[in-house]
Amino acid sequence: MPAEGGPQPSKIAPVPGPERRSEPAIPAEDRLFSLVLALLATEAGLLKSEILSTVRGYAERFDRSGSNVNLDRQFERDKDQIRELGIPLETVESPDRPGDNQSLRYRIPKGQYDLPDEVRFTPDELTLLGLAAEVWREASLSEDSQRALTKLRALGIEPREPVIGYAPRLRVRDAAFEPLRQALDRRQSVRFDYFKPGERAPRERRVNPLAVVMHEGRWHLHAHDLAVDAPRTFLLSRIVGDVTPIAGSTFDAPPAGIQDRVIADLAELRLRNAADLAVTAGSDAEVRLGRRAVERDEDAGVIRLHYTDAAVFADELAAYGPEVRVLSPETLRVAVRERLHVVADAHREPEASR
Q: Which InterPro entries does this UniProt record tie to the protein (predicted)?
């Protein structure tokens, strides 16, 4: 502390400068939503400079007197993401300045983005769509959640109204799901190792992914197999290791409605496969399998079930041990017996230890 009467410390005042307000960060999905709305609102399209200086999510960081390199890069990434959403973002050249990237305009043709005239949602359906978006929110499908939310909001649906007290979480257990989903969006050929039942080792497959669908609680990939030049359907749970894009290899968009057709084909395959099973009365097998029975003989303790994949079904039946016997078909009975022999051999003591 200075002595009394000595020189007093000077008070340094802050140098006045331009006032800067701290802007809250704009979530990525809000920025994408704002960009979609802006591009839908104009028939002529918007210049990149107009987008960066006016659209929420860019405008807050736009520097009118300096470099906007980071915003440029952000916009390029956002363009790719919007197209991955299935939104038809177009680039329009200026007629009097062909080849000039600075004069390019961006737009989303409203007629191509609107729902077909025959598609209408009831209030209950809109509520369920909102609930579906909440179910996926912040779950293992969070990336897909943001895609769904952006589409719903662009349709005028705000999926935040609570419908029930909680939203269950969906979990994708197959590691191949996300890379295949990305390959579908980008129309990118991929390769992966696939372990087909009956083979001793996985084999590499090179495919054009066409659809990923859920059937009987399992994810299936429908794809064009490049090696055999024919369509094939794969269980994601049998894909071993990484799904890797094939550099420089792309393909045309899959035909419309392919997901529905694949699900219908799997359902038809399931109906063609029927098994007659003898189940022990009062057992776990009777309770669980009995719920799925399409026919039942109470006196004989026999039920009939449909199934899609024989190997998957054989794995399930073998887990019940002596509680279930396969009466037909013979191929399924042999498959279950082989699995039970493997289990028995694994638990049999070696001869030397007896």
A: CBASS_pafABC_assoc_protein, WCX_dom, WYL_dom
